[in-house]
């Protein structure tokens, strides 16, 4: 009997604390308004001082969304600049426990009650995070659940993302993928070490395994070949480049292929690769696009090559979709000079990792926010047709990546000692197996396909 009474008291106490906690969450509005006023987010109108005014409050599984009217004279950037003050102010408690009634009902009173309560309190300690948006009114989302800081890639993602879908990552409450059939071109930006190149590697590995017979890659690695070298001998790679002149060959061959397909479609009376029954999709992946920007290039000959590259990229981005060509461009230097306007205009999908400042964020996303991302590898803002979502991308380990790539390696040429770079090229349409009269010898590698 004493046990039952004690249990009831404990249950009532925990339930009461839960109610108080949830009530505190609901009162975040008053705290937000106080923080805004105390941090200078106000305007003077005569003798009156005006600040944000609550329009509505909505409860979600992840927390609350507050929508405010912003007084004339304040901009969205004013609030973005005070994001840290708003978030820190909401977390200005000695301890914040996110306990729900469902959590209370999991307690087993036949076991060690005190230990279960300790474990529950320890597990449910949390830190609120906020995100700010503006669509004519200020939206502040207060999340009671933190974003995961690391996600490991696993094989279930191959099943989860079929067709031409690739994993993007996890939000606080759902998983997001990107479908290149619906949104064919993507711009990726972010500072060094944020996860940009890892994402490109994951995309290649995913499509190698899910679209083995249909995917064709044109890989342009302008970071000295350090990113895409493991893929260059895959049978799905039809062209590979590490220098601007090699990139031009890749892009020219892609443009010529598009024109050939256009002529074929005209003769057959079809409009696109789907109507033509063509399953192949060509992915042109460029890392780092700033290296083929003609802006600030002092060498006249190199500048001419880069201008031609920019022309072909523009052509492919504008007209390549119907012929099954997709472009993924990546840069760690997101500036107006380095990202071609045609690429931005035609890339409805954007992925922005942490960037240096608001200007760089606007180049990638056309809005700020990328500069405010936490310093977490793999954290990014995914934008699809104008809608932004903060995600944590899965990380694909190098060992797993090599295992996924190995079955697709084919016979390749090995350069003989003393042979010239020109005779060793395997770029564009020059990658022909079994060619004679050269200085290359064939090396047959035993793979899982042999």
TrEMBL record:
The keyword S-adenosyl-L-methionine does not apply. Residues 413-450 are annotated as: Disordered. It comes from the Bacteria. Residues 171-362 form the FtsK domain. Pfam families: FtsK_SpoIIIE. Coiled coil: none annotated. Keywords: ATP-binding, Nucleotide-binding. One of its GO terms (molecular function) is DNA binding. The keyword Cell wall biogenesis/degradation does not apply. ATP binds at residues 190-197. Residues 413-434 have a biased composition (Basic and acidic residues). This is FtsK domain-containing protein. It comes from Anaerobacillus alkalilacustris. The lineage of its organism: Bacteria, Bacillati, Bacillota, Bacilli, Bacillales.
